[in-house]
Structure formats: structure tokens, C-alpha cells
């Protein structure tokens, strides 16, 4: 060992030389990877470069001769990703003296100075064994231990002691529990929109856990060795190795792009990563969507094989004797609570049994799952599900029986999806497995969204969930052959990602399915109608004026009869609730329910078709009846009502008309603004009424106030009275509030006082607040759309817009409309996750000028644009 004082061999010179060599070798490995995309070669070269550097630093620090330098964890496994931690154990032959302490500290410090992210531990042999007994993570790290330098005898003793003290059965159970907890932490799905390729279900940890347990049990250290011991077939070994390699390649690219340890496929990196991996756009699908679908397929395969192999290893470890099975029929039996096949070649001899296996699971509630042998047989026989299989009447009858079962429908459809049987039976469904939806309100892939919708429909049929949506539970209980709704749910989004109108394209697929499965014309027509019109009820409820009899009449004509209305309502509620936890709220529920009841009354055989006049008279009469309950005289309302036109009475229900009359009948021409607020009838938020002299920028100033208080406007109805006053009503909720909160009552007096003062002060319009823009919005923006068209008499204009949502957006729009002297008469605010689709009825003298209208539309489009904050990054060593 050279002396530190020798010229040219000073510690700083040694460290510099080691650093330069390490950086050069890692940079060469990355450059080679970018040329050849050899993932395994990259991680091996990264590990070799770090091995050389760490050993050199060990020699430079002159660690005690009786210690061993041990690589543990992923580093011990022999794989290092570009930004992985380097886990090192300094295994001591005896406790350190002060000099030894100093040298170990110098070694670790030099590792950090080298730029390595070091996870280190310094322990004696006894300490290692004791810590491993207490901590499964340490035990797992030692299972993968690899000697770098030092005493071979001491390292051999570590391996021997660990093997002698490790209880493989406890280790297996602990790792299974750890895996379950990890899956729950990462949403218990491989289909997260930003999956963690290391930790999520179907990620690298799910492959590593197999090899950890197998290595600890002495059953093998590679896929090839597991195949040799018949724990996995050669085909399965090839499949899991191929998918593991693909996920490893993604992880390498993530580290290189982020320049740090980044194991999440975040929105910020997906597009650039797809380009770096050679993925290209396919039709309407982005390159990133193609990449993500390929990832989901790989993760799904890992989940399948992980289940099979771990079950086989468990049987071997616990020496489970194969007890005589309880016969179910000639193809299936029950063993240890699991459904099993009676022979390995059951599905090869009788492919129809593949679908029937799931039917048996539905009909045998005591079964806890499927055996590894059955799952393996399914996996190998899945390609037998072809055109002839789908045309077989026996298989068609089985699939319909699965949908008509009284229990286990969603559970078995999910299992069919996970085992690739569903996608094979429904080829159109296979195309949307793992298909992402960058529309800012779907939080799931298309196939998972469809499963969520099916789950929601099923919950409507269960007594234990009847309290959640009583109307839905009542409707579905009286709905004959409600399994047809499940067919519609399967197909309603099945054409996503193809380009074009997915409702129209999905309708064709649904019609083909119904014809192939010999559904009666009446049932087929219902399914096709639901798929084609599955967005219609939501659009009408959230964008149109439900107080307008013509709107209800038009929707009733589209629906046609009460059975279709009930079916469409059920599917719509299930669909919206299945998109994202952020999308559904009490306001949407109320709008849909109001639309259902109004249309249902019209479709009743004994109900006359409503017109504006009868609706107006009925509403006025009901409002007067309510006022009498408050001891109002028959003429107390007249002063106010004489200032209101027909439009006001048609836009508001009788309860709201009575409330406003009680509040304003004695101050028809006030000198200052009058603001009244009450708890919204939807159960969340406030209903706020403003009565003041009309001004061109009044709507903008109201929006500015609500924006400053972080209130979200759900609905706005603007009315100008005959005597020049504005009578506007708003439904608002606090941004980010928890549904069902009960403290809005405390805000009533505050809003009444502050908003009135805000309007009376005539303060200039303030700049809108700057809210945080979500990452998905930044990287997968929705192209804003504006449409401004006149009504039949060109008196009013309909302004509709769609854009990515952000704080203060409505206020931005209102300020622009005020600048162009455009008056807002009503506003429907529809928020779908991180996307808004708003519609307004407006008027203004300048709107008839084509040049002025074009200028307004251009300014609105510019205001709706999301600033481009993306910038591809690429970090090299």
C-alpha cells in the first residue's frame, strides 16, 4: 500500500483518479446503451464500474484486514441502474478500535465524494445475524449479499449463519405480507396513470420477490434455474424475463431523463421517454400512450406470473401435500379452498372450459381463488380463444350466463381481464387494455374505467348500498333484465383511442355483439342506444337550461320511453362516478336527478306535454302557495313580480322564486346591493342571490369576489329586471372542500356582508389569482375550444368553451366579456376533473360585428391556453 505522503499518490490524487475513471466508465456504458439499448449490459457495466471504484477506495482508506466489503440489496444482486443507491455492508471480524472507526468513516466519506448515493452499515457477524432476525428488510438484503473484497472465510460464515437462522416459512409469509402492503400503498393496481415501475403492482419488485424467496429457499437464483426445478415452465420463464427486461429498460431511461433516482412514470417524462425508446404516435394516440399501454401489458403479465410462481414456491416450501380434491365436475375440483383443474390439459382438450371456470367461481362462493395449476393452464391455453371459439354457441351462452349471475360478476370479469381471457373473448376490449385517457377527467385506463362502471352498476343492485343512491337502487330493482346494462357498460367506451366519435364506433361493436349472442331485437336496441347516447344525459343536465320545457321535450324525444330513460340515468351515474374521485359531486347528482324526474313526468302516458305557458303558470302558482305558508298576503309579491319577465320564472323553480320574493318584495328599488345566501339544496355549498343596479361589468366583479375567496361557481343565472336591476343567483362551493362538509352555515352572513360591500364599493377589477397548474395539464394539454353562435332571432348568443381548468379561469373569462361589453344572462359551469366545459347565454351590440366577434373569440382562446412549461431534460454522466 503506497504511503499517503508519496508524491503523486496523495489521497486527493487517488480520489480524483478514481472519480475520473468511474465517470468515464459510466458515461461509456450510457453511450453504449443509447446505441444498442442493451439494458442488462448497462446495469452490469454500471455495477462493474462501481465495484472497481469502491474497491479502490477501500484500499485507499486501508480498512482493517479482517473485515469484508459486501454489496447488498440491488447492488448485491449485481445490477445497478444509473441513479440507484449503492448499498454496502462493512462486515467486521471484530469490533472497531478508534483507528478502524476513522478508516471506515474515511471510506464512506470518499464514496459520497465520488458522487455515489451510499446506503451503508458497519456490523460484526453477530450483529448482522441479530439485525436480520429483527428486520425482514435487512434479512432480504443479506440474502442477496455479494462479496467485493476482504476475508472469504468471514463472508462464508455470514452466508452459513444466515442460512442456518433463516426460517424460510416465516420469510415467505413476511415477504408476501410486505408485497401486499406495498400494493395497497401504490393503489393496488398496475394501471396507475403514473405507475412506479419499481414498487407498483406488476413492477420490478414483483419479479424480485420471487427470486428473493427462491434464493432463500435454495430453489434457484434465476428464471432458468426455477424452470429447471419445475417451478416455472420454459415459456413462463421466457415471458417473465422479457417483460422484466422491458420494465428495466424503462427504469434506465427514467433515471437518465430525470438525472436522479426517479422510478415513477410521471407525466413530465412520459412523452420524452417514449421518444427515447423509439415509440411513435399511432393514429390519434400519442407516442406516450403507446408506451404506457405496452408498459401496462408487461405489468399485467408480471402480475399473472407472480401469482402462479409464488403459489408454486409456497407449495414447495410448506410441503403442502396434494389432498384428494373435492370433485365439482369432470373438469374441475376444489383443493385447499381453491378451484383446480382435474388434469393439466383440461383446457387444451376442452377450450370451452376456460370460460366455464369463471362461472364455477361465481356459483361456488366458498372458493377463495384459483390454483396455480389452473392459472397456468389458462395462461398457456389463452390463445385457443379465437374466432371459432367466439362463434361456438356453448361459449356464447356461458359468457351471457356470467353477466346474468346473481353474484360475483365484477369480481370474475376483473379476473378474466387479469388472466387475458376477457380481451381474447372480446377483441375490441383487448385494444383498450392499458389505454390511457388524457382528457383531464378520467383517472383510470379505459379498461379499468369500464370495470369501475360495472362495479357501480352492481352496487345499485345490493341492499347494503341502497342508502347511497336510493333512486338508482329503486330503478334497477324494477328494471327487467338489468344485466343488459352490464353489456352497455362493457361497450360504452370500447372504441376509445381509435379516433372519431367513440360513441358511434362503440355502437357498431355493441350491435355486432348483440347479434352474435342472439339477443332479442328489443334488448339489442336498448344496448345500442345506451352506447350511442351514453354522454347525452350528462351533456343536457350540465350544459342546458333544465327549466326550459323545450329542453326537456327534446331530451324526451331522444330517449323515447321510460325504460330507456331509467337505463340511461343508471348508466350515466355509474359512468361519471367511475371516471375519477374528483368528478362526481352533489351538484351533478341533483342536475341528473332533476332531468330524470322532469323527463319521466313527460314520458308518463297520462301526462300532457308541457309548454312554456303552462310551466309558467304552474311555477307561479306553486311559488304563491309557498308564500302563503309564510303568511304573505295575496298582493305582497306584485311589486317585485311586475319587474320580472317570463324568462326569470322559467329559469328558477318555485322554491327559489318564493325565497327571492320573501327577501326582496319590500325593497324593489334599493340604493345599495342586497345579497342573500342560504345553504344550497344540493347538500353542499351555498346559493347566493344578488340584487343591485345593473352594470356592464357586474358579472365579472361577482366572479372576482368568489375567486378571491376561493369559491368555485357551479351555476350562475343572471337576470335583468324591467326597472334596470340585476337579479343574479349563484351556486358556489369552496374549492377543494370535502363533500358533505357541514360548516357552510357559518359562511352565510360573511358572504352576504362582504359581497354587498364589494359591489357597492365599485372597486376596479383586480387581476385573477394564479393557481397551480396540474402536471397532467401541462404535459397533456387539452386544446381549448370556443363556439359563439346566435339564437334564431340573433338577440342572444350561445357561448360554449372547453379548456383545462385552473384557479381563476371563470374570472378571466368574465373580465374579457366585460371588456367587450358583453352581458351574461346565464352560465352553466361543468367541471370534469381538471377540465371545464362551460356554456353561457350572452348578448351585446358588438357581437353582430363579425370583426369584433372574431377578436373576442381570439382573446378568449388565448386566455384559455395553458402556458407551455414543459422542457425535455436529458442528464448524462
TrEMBL record:
Mechanisms controlling activity: Uridylyltransferase (UTase) activity is inhibited by glutamine, while glutamine activates uridylyl-removing (UR) activity.
Essential cofactor(s): Mg(2+)
Entry keyword annotation includes Magnesium: yes
E.C. number: 2.7.7.59, 3.1.4.-
Domain ACT: 687-770, 798-876
Gene Ontology annotations of biological process type: regulation of nitrogen utilization
Family according to the record: Belongs to the GlnD family.
Domain notes: Has four distinct domains: an N-terminal nucleotidyltransferase (NT) domain responsible for UTase activity, a central HD domain that encodes UR activity, and two C-terminal ACT domains that seem to have a role in glutamine sensing.
Protein name, entry field: Bifunctional uridylyltransferase/uridylyl-removing enzyme
Gene for this chain: glnD
Amino acid at each position: 500500500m503506497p504511503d499517503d505522503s508519496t508524491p503523486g499518490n496523495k489521497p486527493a490524487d487517488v480520489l480524483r483518479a478514481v472519480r475520473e475513471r468511474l465517470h468515464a466508465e459510466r458515461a461509456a456504458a450510457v453511450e453504449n446503451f443509447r446505441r444498442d439499448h442493451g439494458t442488462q449490459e448497462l446495469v452490469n457495466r454500471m455495477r462493474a464500474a462501481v465495484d472497481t471504484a469502491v474497491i479502490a477506495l477501500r484500499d485507499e482508506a486501508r480498512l482493517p484486514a479482517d473485515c469484508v466489503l459486501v454489496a447488498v440489496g440491488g447492488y448485491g444482486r449485481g445490477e445497478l441502474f444509473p441513479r440507484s443507491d449503492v448499498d454496502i455492508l462493512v462486515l467486521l471480524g471484530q469490533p472497531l478500535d478508534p483507528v478502524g472507526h476513522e478508516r471506515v468513516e474515511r471510506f464512506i466519506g470518499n464514496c459520497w465524494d465520488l458522487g455515489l448515493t451510499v446506503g451503508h452499515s458497519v456490523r460484526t457477524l453477530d450483529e448482522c445475524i441479530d439485525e436480520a432476525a429483527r428486520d425482514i428488510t435487512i434479512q432480504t438484503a443479506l440474502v442477496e449479499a455479494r462479496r467485493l473484497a476482504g476475508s472469504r472465510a468471514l463472508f462464508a460464515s455470514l452466508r452459513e449463519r444466515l442460512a442456518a437462522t433463516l426460517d424460510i416459512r416465516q420469510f415467505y409469509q413476511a415477504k408476501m405480507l410486505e408485497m401486499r402492503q406495498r400494493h395497497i400503498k401504490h393503489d393496488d393496481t398496475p394501471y396507475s396513470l403514473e405507475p412506479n415501475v419499481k414498487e407498483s403492482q406488476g413492477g420490478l419488485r414483483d419479479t424480485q420477490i420471487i427470486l428473493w424467496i427462491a434464493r432463500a429457499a435454495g430453489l434457484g437464483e434465476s428464471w432458468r434455474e426455477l424452470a429447471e426445478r419445475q417451478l416455472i415452465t420454459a415459456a413462463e420463464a421466457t415471458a417473465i424475463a422479457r417483460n422484466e427486461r422491458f420494465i428495466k429498460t424503462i427504469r434506465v431511461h427514467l433515471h437518465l431523463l430525470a438525472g436522479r433516482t426517479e422510478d415513477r412514470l410521471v407525466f413530465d417524462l412520459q412523452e420524452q421517454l417514449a421518444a427515447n425508446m423509439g415509440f411513435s404516435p399511432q393514429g390519434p394516440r400519442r407516442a406516450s400512450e403507446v408506451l404506457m399501454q405496452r408498459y401496462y401489458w408487461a405489468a399485467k403479465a408480471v402480475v399473472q406470473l407472480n401469482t402462479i410462481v409464488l403459489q408454486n414456491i409456497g407449495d414447495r416450501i410448506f410441503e403442502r401435500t396434494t389432498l384428494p380434491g373435492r370433485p365439482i365436475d369432470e373438469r374441475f375440483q376444489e383443493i385447499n379452498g381453491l378451484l383446480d383443474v382435474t388434469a393439466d390439459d383440461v383446457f387444451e382438450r376442452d377450450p370451452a372450459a376456460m370460460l366455464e371456470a369463471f362461472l364455477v367461481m361465481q356459483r361456488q362462493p366458498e372458493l377463495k381463488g384459483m390454483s396455480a395449476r389452473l392459472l397456468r393452464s389458462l395462461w398457456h391455453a389463452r390463445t385457443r380463444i379465437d374466432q371459432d371459439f367466439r362463434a361456438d354457441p356453448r361459449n356464447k351462452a356461458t359468457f351471457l350466463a356470467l353477466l346474468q349471475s346473481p353474484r360475483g360478476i365484477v369480481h370474475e370479469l376483473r379476473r378474466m381481464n387479469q388472466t387475458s381471457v376477457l380481451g381474447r373473448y372480446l377483441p375490441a376490449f383487448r385494444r383498450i387494455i392499458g389505454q390511457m385517457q388524457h382528457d383531464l377527467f378520467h383517472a383510470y385506463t379505459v379498461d379499468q374505467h369500464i370495470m369501475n362502471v360495472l362495479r357501480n352498476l352492481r352496487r345499485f343492485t345490493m341492499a347494503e348500498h341502497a342508502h347511497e343512491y336510493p333512486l338508482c337502487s329503486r330503478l334497477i330493482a324494477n328494471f327487467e333484465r338489468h344485466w343488459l346494462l352490464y353489456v352497455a357498460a362493457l361497450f360504452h367506451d370500447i372504441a376509445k383511442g381509435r379516433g372519431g366519435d367513440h360513441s358511434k364506433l362503440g355502437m357498431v361493436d355493441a350491435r355486432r355483439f348483440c347479434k352474435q349472442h342472439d339477443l332479442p331485437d328489443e334488448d339489442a336496441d336498448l344496448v345500442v342506444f345506451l352506447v350511442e347516447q351514453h354522454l347525452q344525459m350528462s351533456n343536457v343536465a350540465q350544459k342546458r337550461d333544465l327549466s326550459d320545457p323545450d329542453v326537456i321535450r327534446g331530451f324526451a324525444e331522444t330517449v323515447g320511453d321510460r325504460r330507456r330513460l331509467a337505463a340511461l340515468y343508471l348508466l350515466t351515474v355509474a359512468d361519471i362516478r367511475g371516471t375519477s374521485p374528483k368528478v362526481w359531486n352533489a351538484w351533478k347528482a341533483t342536475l341528473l336527478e332533476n332531468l330524470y324526474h322532469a323527463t319521466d313526468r313527460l314520458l308518463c302516458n297520462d301526462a300532457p306535454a308541457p309548454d312554456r305557458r303552462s310551466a309558467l303558470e304552474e311555477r307561479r302558482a306553486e311559488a304563491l302557495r309557498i308564500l302563503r305558508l309564510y303568511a304573505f298576503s295575496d298582493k305582497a309579491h306584485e311589486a317585485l313580480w311586475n319587474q320580472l319577465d317570463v324568462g326569470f320564472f322559467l329559469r328558477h323553480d318555485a322554491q327559489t322564486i318564493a325565497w327571492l320574493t320573501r327577501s326582496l318584495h319590500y325593497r324593489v328599488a334599493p340604493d345599495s346591493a342586497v345579497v342573500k345566501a342560504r345553504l344550497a339544496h344540493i347538500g353542499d355549498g351555498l346559493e347566493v342571490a344578488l340584487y343591485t343596479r345593473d352594470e356592464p361589468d357586474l358579472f365579472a366583479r361577482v366572479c372576482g369576489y368568489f375567486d378571491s375567496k376561493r369559491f368555485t361557481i357551479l351555476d350562475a343565472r343572471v337576470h335583468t329586471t324591467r326597472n334596470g336591476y340585476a337579479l343574479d343567483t349563484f351556486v358556489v362551493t369552496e374549492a377543494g372542500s370535502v363533500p358533505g362538509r357541514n360548516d357552510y352555515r357559518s359562511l352565510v352572513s360573511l358572504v352576504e356582508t362582504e359581497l354587498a360591500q364589494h359591489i357597492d364599493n365599485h372597486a376596479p377589477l383586480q387581476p385573477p389569482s394564479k393557481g397551480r397548474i396540474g402536471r397532467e395539464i401541462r404535459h397533456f394539454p387539452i386544446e381549448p375550444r370556443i363556439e359563439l353562435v346566435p339564437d334564431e332571432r340573433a338577440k342572444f348568443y350561445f357561448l360554449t368553451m372547453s379548456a383545462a381548468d385552473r384557479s381563476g379561469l371563470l374570472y378571466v373569462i368574465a373580465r374579457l366579456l366585460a371588456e367587450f361589453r358583453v352581458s351574461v344572462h346565464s352560465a352553466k359551469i361543468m367541471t370534469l376533473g381538471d377540465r371545464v366545459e362551460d356554456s353561457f347565454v350572452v348578448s351585446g351590440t358588438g357581437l353582430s360585428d363579425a370583426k369584433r366577434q372574431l377578436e373576442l373569440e381570439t382573446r378568449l382562446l388565448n386566455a384559455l391556453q395553458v402556458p407551455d412549461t414543459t422542457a425535455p431534460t436529458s442528464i448524462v454522466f
